[in-house]
Amino acid sequence: MTREAPAAADEGALLRTHRSDIDRAEAAIHELIDALGFDPDAAELAATPARVARTLIQATLGGYERDPQEILSATFRGPYRDLVLVTDIFFVSMCPHHLLPFSGHAHLAYLPRDRVVGLGRVTDLVQAFACRFQFQEKLTQELADAMMDHLQPFGAACRIEATHYCERVAHEERAPSLVITEAVRGRFADDPESGDRFRRALADRRGRS
Ligand SMILES: [Zn+2]
To answer: Among 9, 20, 67, 181, which is 20 to 30 Å from 59 by CA?
Structure first.
């Protein structure tokens, strides 16, 4: 079975083809289990290659099938021009260096020019970029840039707080518990007051929770 993603999806530097071959992935995982010294045909492991292949393809590649422009097209016009902040959007993404997940929360903000987007679409946008081979830094920038490109707001901002399991597994004692990245665009970058407001609004909601 092969799965094909539309050409409209972001290619990314790492994506070589829009096809992923689940049968080959399954065979490779069978081989990996064998290479690690386990019996891939033992009853407990017999279904593992298929399960892992499916999970990996969904977790790492599902986002390539989503078109950010289409996701952010569900807008409605309105006079609202003040801060919109959507916080604590949980995501799981995949580190291409270790093939291990990192996960955490994304906080997205924008200053609408004349259109606001459905809040569920903001969540969808995070999943579309997270379900890829990703680096947290790149994910943060892509989310801010996608809002700028497709909503044309006065400004867009993204902050991500995540835990990297590869770091935990490989360097347990010196692994950072939380990695924070931030990308600010438009007015959030140009006007220090707007940037501060975004950070204050995030801090305020923490104080209340
Ligand atoms: Zn890693």
So the answer is: 181
